[in-house]
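Incident review: delayed structure delivery

Summary: a single-chain prediction request sat in the queue longer than the usual turnaround. Root cause was a stuck worker, restarted by the on-call engineer. No data loss occurred. The affected request and its eventual output are reproduced below so the record is complete for anyone auditing the incident later.

Affected input:
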Amino acid sequence: MSQRNPMNDRYQVDEKKGQTRRSAATAKPKAKAASSVRMQSATKTPKQKKLEEKARRDERNAHDRKYYNPPTEEFKMWKKLYWGLLGLAIITTGGSYLLRMYAVVPEQVSLTVLAFGYVGIIGALIVDFAKVRKLRRAYQEEMASKATKELRAEAKKEHAAAVAAKKAAAAAEDDKAREAASKAGVPGAGKPGRKSTSPFSSLKESAIQVFQGNKKAATTTEAADKAREAANKTDSKAGKRKGRQ
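Output delivered after worker restart:
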């Protein structure tokens, strides 16, 4: 729409006046969902996110508890060393306390025994963080990967079995179609040939054979008609010659 008069007041102000007319589609009431339809939002609520996170955490903890102690000689060795150092720390710490309280010994002896206790505690922590936990985590990851591979292999087997069953069903339908065509008297329907997954392949082959047979028969009939016509022409010529003589 062209602008009529640029000097009009309506064109001299910066703000826009009026509003766009709303379409009739906005006034159409929305249909209610059926009782069996469950409306669910695509966005997850914080409560749903917390529940899913808790479920994943519980599943991970159950997996870690299941494979907590790897059945390897290396892990068993480091675990024995860990418990030995921890036991040494407990014994030496308790012994140092008893020596201080009830034995008449120099204070340096009790401090030396206590130092052995601290050495045992520090050594047990180093063995636990540096060796035991790493071996345990590696074993848990290995078992998780193995479980995933087993699931994939099982899924592949199921897919292969489904494909084989589908092919077998198609072959059975093809055989049934061949048998039905042979019972109906279709020539060449029961002949074994290249199997096809389509149940109508045998009927198609039979129709092609029938068409070829009809074509050959038509060619033979046409040749016989031509020979008969040629014989009739020869007889008519011979009759004319006799009449002239």
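Verification: The helical segments are 46-66, 73-102, 107-183, 201-244.
Action items: add queue-age alerting; document worker restart procedure.
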